[in-house]
Amino acid sequence: MEFEFRRVFGKYSVQCSMGHEIIGRWLNEEIGRDMEKISQVLSLIAQAENNLADVFNLPGTEISISIEAGEVTVQENVLLQQYEQDFEPDMDFYDCESSGMCGLEDFSTLIHQWQRFLTTGR
Predict the structure, then answer these.
(1) Which of 79, 74, 104 is nearest to 91 (CA)?
(2) CA 48 to chain centre
(3) pTM, whole model, 2 decimals?
(4) InterPro entries this protein is in (predicted)?
(5) How far is CA 7 from the centre of its chain?
């Protein structure tokens, strides 16, 4: 997973590579510059690294994460709801922007670098 941090006119943001856009959105919208939330995510990562057999969840207002067996799933909460209606196959394209996965190691690197970027500006 590739990502780029930006600071424009005092506003911090991250943009993630194609297929991982939702991870960038989650970090921008749910975590942002809140160091307490960043610490909470880092604690969750540490727990997951030590207990690969368990499932760890961090619900967000619009986007939530789940860590299971060394994989991180980030998805919009609306996708967590069961729908009786089947969507057209063309809707799969939009789902790509609403959910994404990455390895726990990549996710950990992203969060640690985000924390460093916010505190040092690099």
Answers:
(1) 79
(2) 15
(3) 0.85
(4) UPF0231 (IPR008249)
(5) 19
CB 53 within 8 A of CB 69: yes
Number of H helices, E strands in the chain: 4, 6
- Structure confidence by residue, pLDDT tens digits, 4-29: 999 999 899 999 999 999 999 999 99
Q: In angstroms, how far apart are the furthest CA atoms of the chain?
A: 48
Per the CB < 8 A criterion, the answer to whether 26 and 65 are in contact is yes
Q: Taking the CB of residue 80, how many other CB atoms lie within 10 A of it?
A: 11
The burial of 95, by beta-carbon neighbours within 10 Å (0-12 exposed, 13-18 middle, 19 or more buried), is given as middle
User: Among residues of the chain, what percentage have pLDDT more than 90?
Assistant: 80
Closest alpha carbon to 97 in 78, 71, 70: 78
The answer to whether 7 and 14 are in contact (CB under 8 A) is no
**The two structure tokens encoding residue 96:** 């790509």
